[in-house]
């Protein structure tokens, strides 16, 4: 419960979390310390200052009470008040207690004065800016004493707070700079890994703290190994295909002059072998088709459909949602759609190509009205060299079994996948190339 609650408010990035981990404890300690310290200190200082004013009031009152007439009383009181920066007069109007609610030291002043001196009546902090008006009872009548605020309470702790504030901000700023320096190598590693996942090899050099550097080194080793393997596979397949071409061509030539009974069959075999070799070569080269660039996939889809129509297929463009440009290797993408459309028209009659775009992914779908592929065979159909049960697709002609595998390879190169399902509209297969944004 609390976990999910916290998770919702926790920043997602490492930088954000580290900042929070840094700020919350330091901020809390600072706040608590300042409040406790300021309250104690200023309360004590205020009390001490007020106590000395209370003593002056006692003296002033005793002088006034000793005088014979009210006039003498007031002049006796003034004789003490003036040098002490207080001013005293008879009270004409009634005075009531008044204090701003946030004026905490005012509360201490009132409590201290009343405790020290029972002749102190109402105390008003608000009527006169910068002064406290205190009503006093003398035997000659009520007196009004005006005490400058600076004489009773300590000045506001501005300096102290400003100093703490500025120092903490400076320290936090330096800490954040340093933190950013620590997070940057992790970000770079993540960017390099995610680019490689999408088939791009961006320059990357391990940097940062030891653990990050280690992860970076491991990533580079892994990337090198995968690149080497891909290269070897390409070399192997294209080498073999290439080397087989020459003897095949020779056989074809020889067959031209041959006139035996199995001639037609042999020519068909040679043609089929030729087609297979071409498919192998395509497969081997699918990794290196084109450079990644940011483009809008819509025109590519229209072009692929047009090409299929020219080739005699019954292919149409379905719903195309608008999308921002995505990073694509255009020729590879074209090949992948071409393969899916090729399957759709080979195993069905009608094909429909659509595009749907969501916040995180773009998917190109190719639907057909053929027999489809049952769910349990879908994974197998994606593997190289698998052709499903031939009786399911009679007169469909037989391919090599590489079309879906090549499309899958291309999708993975772009960081995406191929998903097979049942076409909701046409009832046959729906093959979708799902690419992340
Ligand atoms: N649209 C589809 N409808 C029904 N079955 C399909 C469809 N697409 C592919 N399949 C099945 O999946 C198998 C693998 O398809 P894939 O495209 O990889 O190979 P292929 O079409 O047989 O040969 P290639 O495409 O290399 O010429 C096919 O043999 C076929 O049985
Ligand atoms: Mg195919």
UniProtKB/TrEMBL annotation:
The chain crosses the membrane at residues 20-42, 160-179. It holds the Pfam family HAMP. Residues 180-231 form the HAMP domain. It catalyses: ATP + protein L-histidine = ADP + protein N-phospho-L-histidine. Its main location: membrane. Residues 239-437 form the Histidine kinase domain. It comes from the Bacteria. InterPro entries: 2C_sensor_his_kinase, HAMP_dom, HATPase_C_sf, HATPase_dom, His_kinase_dom, HisK_dim/P_dom, HisK_dim/P_sf, Sig_transdc_His_kin-like_C. It is found in: Cell inner membrane. One of its GO terms (molecular function) is ATP binding. Its EC number is 2.7.13.3. It is an enzyme of class 2 (transferase). GO terms for cellular component: plasma membrane. It is a multi-pass membrane protein. Keywords: ATP-binding, Cell inner membrane, Cell membrane, Kinase, Membrane, Nucleotide-binding, Phosphoprotein, Transferase, Transmembrane, Transmembrane helix, Two-component regulatory system. PANTHER family: SENSOR HISTIDINE KINASE ENVZ, SENSOR PROTEIN CREC. This is histidine kinase. The lineage of its organism: Bacteria, Pseudomonadati, Pseudomonadota, Alphaproteobacteria, Rhodobacterales.
């Amino acid at each position: 419960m609390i976990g999910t609650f916290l998770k919702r408010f926790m920043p997602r990035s490492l930088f954000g979390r580290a900042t929070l981990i840094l700020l919350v404890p330091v901020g809390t300690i600072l706040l608590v310390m300042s409040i406790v310290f300021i309250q104690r200190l200023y309360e004590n200082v205020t009390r001490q200052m007020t106590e000395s004013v209370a003593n002056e009031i006692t003296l002033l009152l005793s002088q006034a009470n000793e005088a014979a007439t009210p006039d003498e009383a007031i002049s006796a009181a003034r004789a003490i008040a003036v040098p002490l920066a207080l001013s005293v007069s008879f009270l004409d109007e009634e005075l009531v207690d008044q204090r701003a609610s946030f004026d905490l030291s005012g509360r201490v002043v009132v409590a201290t004065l009343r405790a020290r001196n029972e002749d102190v009546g109402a105390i008003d902090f608000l009527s006169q800016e910068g002064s406290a008006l205190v009503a006093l009872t003398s035997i000659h009548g009520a007196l009004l004493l005006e005490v400058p605020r600076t004489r009773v309470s300590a000045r506001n702790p501005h300096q102290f707070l400003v100093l703490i504030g500025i120092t903490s901000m400076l320290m936090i700023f330096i800490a954040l700079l340093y933190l950013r320096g620590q997070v940057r190598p992790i970000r770079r590693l993540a960017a390099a890994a995610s680019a490689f996942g999408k088939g791009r090899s961006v320059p990357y050099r391990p940097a940062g703290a030891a653990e990050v550097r280690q992860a970076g080194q491991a990533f580079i080793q892994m990337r090198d190994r995968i690149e080497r393997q891909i290269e070897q596979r390409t070399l192997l397949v294209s080498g073999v295909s290439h080397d087989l071409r020459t003897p095949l061509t020779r056989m074809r030539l020889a067959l031209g002059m041959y006139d035996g009974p199995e001639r037609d069959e042999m020519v068909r075999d040679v043609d089929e072998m030729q087609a297979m070799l071409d498919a192998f070569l395509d497969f081997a080269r699918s990794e290196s088709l084109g450079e990644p660039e940011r483009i809008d996939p819509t025109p590519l889809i229209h072009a692929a459909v047009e090409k299929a129509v020219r080739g005699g297929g019954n292919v149409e463009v379905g719903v195309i949602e608008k999308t921002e440009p995505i990073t694509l290797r255009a020729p590879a993408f074209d090949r992948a759609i071409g393969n899916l459309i090729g399957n759709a028209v080979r195993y069905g009659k009608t094909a429909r190509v659509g595009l749907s775009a969501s916040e995180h992914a773009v998917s190109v779908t190719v639907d057909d009205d053929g027999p489809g592929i049952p769910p349990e065979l879908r994974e197998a159909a994606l593997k190289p060299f698998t052709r499903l049960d031939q009786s399911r697709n009679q007169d469909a002609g037989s391919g090599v079994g590489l079309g879906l595998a090549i499309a899958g390879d291309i999708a993975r190169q772009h960081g995406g996948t191929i998903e097979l399902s049942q076409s909701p509209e046409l009832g046959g297969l729906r093959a979708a190339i799902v690419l992340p944004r």
